[in-house]
Design goal:
Layout (H helix, E strand, L loop, with lengths): L28 E6 L2 E7 L8 E5 L4 E5 L2 E2 L2 E2 L9 H12 L7 E4 L5 E2 H7 L5
Amino acid sequence: MISDPEFFRSFGFELELEPVKPDFLIEETPGRKFLGLEMDVLEVPGHCPGSLCFFSRKDELLIGGDVLFAGGVGRWDLPGGDADLLFEGIRNKIFPLGDNVTVLPGHGPPTKIGTERRTNPFLV
């Protein structure tokens, strides 16, 4: 999407984007170091293709981006979004991390996986 200036326009968005070629791609992998912090990289598409979450087992902390929010989930109605993939990824990749894991979403307050498993209206 970042290398195609017409990608968003083809979906009706009036965005002027300068194409960018990525230096490298981050893929799903256990135990990758980022600035000295060991994180598992989880691919959880649905909000957008290639959507990633970063999980620190040691700190029981998930940097969740626009996948899981306190009482909500990421939008799936934008280009490349897919509700089924989003819900499947949350249930199969995020929920198994453990109820005590703190989620830092891309927007809004932090939450816990257990809270969202029990109360999130999109997931119960």
